[in-house]
Design a protein that fits this description.
Elements lengths: L1 H39 L42 E6 L4 H5 L6 E5 L4 H7 L1 H10 L5 E6 L9 E5 L12 E5 L5
Antiparallel strand pairs: 1-2, 1-5, 2-3, 3-4
């Protein structure tokens, strides 16, 4: 009986230490991510994940003209944000992939703004279910970083302790740009 009690206490201590380590690692990775963004001043790719090279990520353009100018027209192939991340559950596939609340989604695997405009959230749900357990590339921008970048994250939709396969809530933004 005493041994079981000691074992249970040690397991709880281990869980506390692991959670503290995870929090510190997340803080370290966040600081590293921000330093990388500042130093490159351009396109970055999450260095902790495997996938296509950073040369495939695309920088966002900004119109910083102080005088009135004609509205910029995006290139025909320029991606458009269609989702904003409303919330990310801790320890979820979305959190592991580096998604944060407020991030704008420009591409989620094969789902882009055109498909999303036509089929809505159903397109995202169907794509996620069809790709459960597979690595999916997501093109994201984080509006709170001074230099707007499109960053490629990689997520593996899977069953986890929480709800859904991703662990994030999204709000549509098609038509609000």
């Amino acid at each position: 009986r005493e041994a079981r009690h000691t074992l249970a206490c040690n397991k709880n201590d281990l869980i506390e230490v692991m959670n503290a380590m995870q929090k510190k690692l997340e803080e370290l990775h966040e600081a590293t991510r921000e330093d990388t963004v500042r130093s490159l001043g351009g396109v970055v790719r999450d260095p902790n994940l495997r996938g296509p090279s950073s040369s495939e990520a695309k920088p966002l353009t900004e119109n910083k003209i102080s005088q009135p100018a004609p509205a910029p027209r995006p290139a025909p192939d320029a991606p458009k944000a269609f989702l904003v991340v409303a919330a990310v559950a801790p320890n979820s596939p979305a959190a592991i992939a580096g998604l944060r609340a407020g991030d704008h989604i420009y591409k989620f695997g094969d789902v882009g703004s055109d498909l999303f405009a036509a089929e809505g959230m159903q397109s995202l749900a169907a794509f996620t279910r069809a790709n459960e357990g597979q690595t999916v590339a997501i093109l994201v921008s984080t509006p709170d970083i001074s230099t707007q970048l499109l960053v490629e994250h990689f997520i593996v939709p899977r069953r986890w302790a929480g709800n859904g396969l991703i662990g994030a809530e999204f709000d549509p933004i098609v038509g609000r740009q």
